[in-house]
Amino acid sequence: MLRKADKPGFDLAGWSKLARLGSTNAIFGLSEMVNQDVKVSGLSLEEVSMRNAVGLIGKADEPMVSIYLLFSGNASGHIMLAFRPETALELVDMAVGLPVGSTQSIGEMEQSVLGEIGNIAGSFFLNAVADDAGMRLMPSPPAVVMDMAGAIVGSVMAEVWDHAESAFAIRLGFATGDQQIEGSFIVLPNMSSMMGSGLAGGV
Fold it and tell me: Do 75 and 199 contact (CB within 8 A), yes or no?
C-alpha cells in the first residue's frame, strides 16, 4: 500500500507546494498539446517501496504506454506519463488534429508524437519548480515504452531503487470532462539530490 512521504527531515509542506505548482503547469502544457481542457483528478505525495511501485501506474499485467524522461541539474530524478494503449492512440489523434479513433497502432510517427507530449508535460513541470525554487532543472529526451505495467516499472524505473528501499513520488491523475483522457504523471526525485539541493529541508 502506498504511503505519504514521511522521511526524517523531509519538508512535506514545501514539496506539496512545488508538486501543486509543477503539476498545474504540466497539465497546462498537456492541454495545449492535445487541444483539450485537461483537469487534475488527483494529486498526492507518497513514499513507495519497490514491491508496491507498479501501483503507481496500474496493475502488473495491464498493458500500458509510458513516456519516460530523466531530469538533471540542481536535483535529479525521473518523470513518467502512463496511459492505457487506447488512450495513447486518442492522444495522438488529438495532438495532430485527427478525429479520435483515426490512429489504430503506434508506429514511429506515433511514438514521436507521444514523446513530444511527454517532453512538453515534463518540461512544463520542471520549469515551474525550477522558477519557484531558484533551481536549474533539465529534462532528457523522452523514451516511449510499450509493455505491461509491471515490466515498465521493473525495467525503466529499477535504478530508482538501486540504493534505496523506497522512493518519494509525486503522483498526479488527470482527465478531461468527458473522460477522453485518463492517465498518470509520476515524478520520482532522487532523494540524495534533493538533500544536496537543500530542498528536502525546506523550500
Answer: yes
Q: Smallest Cα–Cα separation from 118: which of 90, 85, 140?
A: 140
**Residue 196, CA distances (Å) to 142, 158, 187 in order:** 25, 22, 18
Q: Which CATH superfamily is domain 3-197 in?
A: CheC-like (3.40.1550.10)
Q: Is the dihedral of CA 70, 66, 42, 3 positive or negative?
A: negative
pLDDT in tens, the chain (203 residues): 334 444 544 555 777 788 889 989 999 999 988 888 888 888 888 777 777 777 888 888 999 999 999 999 988 888 989 999 999 999 999 999 999 899 999 999 999 999 999 999 999 999 999 999 898 999 999 999 999 998 988 876 676 666 566 677 888 888 887 656 788 888 888 766 555 555 554 44
Q: Give the start-to-end residue ranges of the domains of the chain.
A: 3-197
Q: Are 173 and 41 in contact (CB under 8 A)?
A: yes
Q: Name the 3-class secondary structure at 107.
A: coil
Cα Rg for the chain, rounded, in angstroms?
16
Residues 170/19, Cβ–Cβ less than 8 Å: yes
Helix H or strand E encompassing 26:
helix 12-34
Kindly report the number of other CB atoms within 10 A of residue 103's CB atom: 21
Contacts of 51 (CB under 8 A, 6+ apart): none
